[in-house]
Amino acid sequence: MFKSPNDPKEYRYLTLGNQLRVLLVHDHTAPRAAAALSVGIGHFDDPLDRQGMAHFLEHMLFLGTEKFPNPGEFQSFVNQYGGSNNAWTGTENTTYFFDIAPPAFAAGLERFGQFFIAPLFNADAVDKERQAVDSEYKLKLKDDVRRLYQVHKETINPEHPFAKFSVGDITTLEDRPDNPVRDELIAFYQQHYSANQMGLVLQGPQSLEELTTYAEQFFGAIPNSGKDKPAINVPLVTDRENACFIAIEPIKEVRKLTLSFSLPPMDAHYRSKPLSYLAHLLGNEGTGSLMSVLKSEGLINTLAAGGGISGSNFREFTIGLNLTPNGLKRVDHIVTTIFQYIRLITQQGLAEWRYLEKKAVLEQAFRYQEKSRPLDTVSYLVMNLLHYAPEDIVYGDYMMSQYDEALLKEVLSYFRPDNLRLTLVAKGQKHDRVADWYHTPYSVTPFTEAQLSAWAEPGDNPALLLPEQNPYLCQRLDPHPLTDEQEAIPQLIQDLPGFRLWFMQEHEFRVPKGLVYVAIDSPHAVSSVRNIVKTRLCVEMLMESCNEVAYPAEVAGMAYNLYAHQGGVTLQLSGFSEKQPLLLKLLLEKFSGRTFNIDRFNSIKAQMLRNWRNAAEDKPISQLFNQLTGLLQPNNPPYPAMIKELETVAVEELPGFVEAMFAELHIDTFVYGDWRKDDALALAEVLKDAFRVTDQLYGEAQRPLVHLGECGTLRYEVDCGHADSAILIYYQSREQSPKEIATYTLANHLMSTTFFHELRTEQQLGYMVGTANLPLNRYPGLLLYIQSPVAGPLQLLEAIDEFTNAFALVLLELNESQWQASKQGLIAQLSEPDTNLRARAQRYWVSIGHKDDHFDQRQKIAREMAALSRAELVRFLVEDIKPRTANRLVMYYQGGAHLNLTPLEVGEPIASVSHFQRHAQ
């Protein structure tokens, strides 16, 4: 099996006696073990009168097996040993996965394997879990992604299984006379869940021999029907569904144009990747590109190429564009320009050097790929296992084996107007149909003869150019030699008024990559909501101005980001380090030569307003979370407050604002990875010159947090405009000490699975149910939340209060070994070594921001957690979490479906946000 020279893992492919395909991955450094099993069955296989069956079955397998009948047993076991688990149902696959502390891997696999050998399908669980599927369906009724997906399903060939409703609801899964759904569920499982249709990946520090034993012991008994899955023999799109314009009405304010070309399946060409080559050219964002030309005409904001759905007998190739209001009026012109670029590629774009350049980028990415979390690794390898030859499972995603011009020409031949479906998602169009399930208004209109002929012969456009050779491709691909002074933690190598430089040469991962963080704090940037909004506007304008010139660097494996935070803005560079100084120089030149073009300002302001207004259409729980952080962090205002200011900001305000912002600043820089100290110091000089660090006033911006203090129960109602109700309860620590962090973290860890099992699985209050650890400005916090289609906020609060009142007893009922195991699972998570360069850099950077100059906060928390007694945690629950004694904030929304229910009036209302922020202690 071909693997990266930078990959120390060992692999073994085998087929068990029951024809189950297995990939074993030995990683002696893995902090966790992980497993993924994928079944080649998805919603395409649903019976026509039982749509959503594959998805329902995925839910049911977690709810008890003959050997382990307790419905919540698997999740509790995995959680106890510091792991996580999940599953997803796709069109032609259903995939299950989990990770866990390595010593518990065998016991976890024993439980996991039973899903596929002897599930119970307990009748009571069937009744409850179809409610959960129905809640999941209702949760997404206002989700534009689902709404548009349904129109996609209704506008392709109705004979193709893609046309089926994939989620299921209470009606498709109901019991019918002489036909209970449980009987059909068991029959569906027995028909489709066969070992010869499955792939399994196991990864852990165990030896390959030990992993082989696990595979045979826990999965060898999965039944094998011996039947092959029948091929799909109807096309996704016929002539009837092609050459048409589909207009869809969204809920959110979007203007999205998508061109979809229907291709035959392309999986057989994974070694040469013709679509990657064409997507690279069509999606290019450099000078003269499709993106550049259409943007300069004021018609689009973004462009992406190469997406689209795919399956065993079809592949779509899409080009997606976000339009400006002007672009909405000139759709035909945009499509003409795209066909002009396709013509340019056909005539001049097929060249081996372009293929080799793309291949070099992928080869570098493969050679210097960094380790990912075991859970992520098994999740993508299990899909490769089912689609690639055994020797290509690890390498297949990166392969570009040969330039095949004939194949490229064949693929390009499908990029024709008569093989095009054009979809426009925008408000205010004419519609004559409404989609099932999600009630989306849409219309379908055939292309006119004039459109077909104009696009078939689009002519040439001299503004369009193919990309030049890439100057950012790295030549030096071996890391710098290590210096003698190999420090164990980052060192502060410059500490000047207003400027600090942290540095560390990385000496473990040994890849030619680096990360540079530059945090620019300015009190002026965050001194008011209006200034916070102006900061974000300036960030977006600078990012947009850099896009075209910096795009080749992104192609070559480098990335950059500029984002606003509670003290100002942060610039981050990552990827191959050799050309990072060149990229930084380019970004700083753009910054120093900044212009505030009125057209781009208007366009970006409109985009930001649209995005923030669209947040008002997010699911209620997301809106409550945004309002919670806005309420408690004045430098992180909620969307409605920012919208109000942004509406009146004028371009004339920005130059003076930026000057004032940079008159008082403080810069923290961290250079890490394949960097030498001298180069880091040289980079620091470049930064100091660019930001004129000579005569400013220096001081870090304050990051205020509203402290709840002795508030009792406070409540704050948010209008979310949704049928579901939602509630979010927040408990805040008064201290930042490692002991407090350990206490809150462990409380969340212990609560999470019991809370989910009790309020979602047993009481069926909603699909989105959970607890979360929420530190704000270094103060630990605990969240409990539910979004519900069946209960109002008062009922939800009562259910949560009942849970928190009783939870101390649950803790007391744990035996000593369960208590210690739960703590050890979490301590193991806390103490896990960093997986890769990026993860370690991020941890160090957070420590720098938290003034943790010894970089040992994790160890301190782990020590406190180890010392935490059960009596101390019970005392914490009784004194700080129990509703009668707690100081807490209750955010809630009474959904449209529950307006007839008793309103929530527990505790004191927050009538004025500004008064609350000023007077909370």
TrEMBL record:
Domain Peptidase M16 middle/third as annotated: residue spans: 366-643
Gene3D superfamilies registered for this protein in UniProt: Metalloenzyme, LuxS/M16 peptidase-like
Keywords recorded for this protein, A-Z: Hydrolase, Metal-binding, Metalloprotease, Protease, Zinc
Top-level taxon in the UniProt lineage: Bacteria
Domain Peptidase M16 C-terminal: 182-360
Entry's Gene Ontology BP terms: proteolysis
One GO CC annotation: cytoplasm
Domain Peptidase M16 N-terminal: 21-158
Essential cofactor(s): Zn(2+)
GO MF terms held by the record: metal ion binding; metalloendopeptidase activity
Family matches, as Pfam families: Peptidase_M16, Peptidase_M16_C, Peptidase_M16_M, PqqF-like_C_4
InterPro entries: Metalloenz_LuxS/M16, Pept_M16_N, Pept_M16_Zn_BS, Peptidase_M16, Peptidase_M16_C, Peptidase_M16_M, PqqF-like_C_4
EC number: 3.4.24.55
Coenzyme PQQ synthesis protein F-like C-terminal lobe domain: residues covered: 746-845
Function: Endopeptidase that degrades small peptides of less than 7 kDa, such as glucagon and insulin.
Stated family: Belongs to the peptidase M16 family.
Name of the protein in its database record: Protease 3
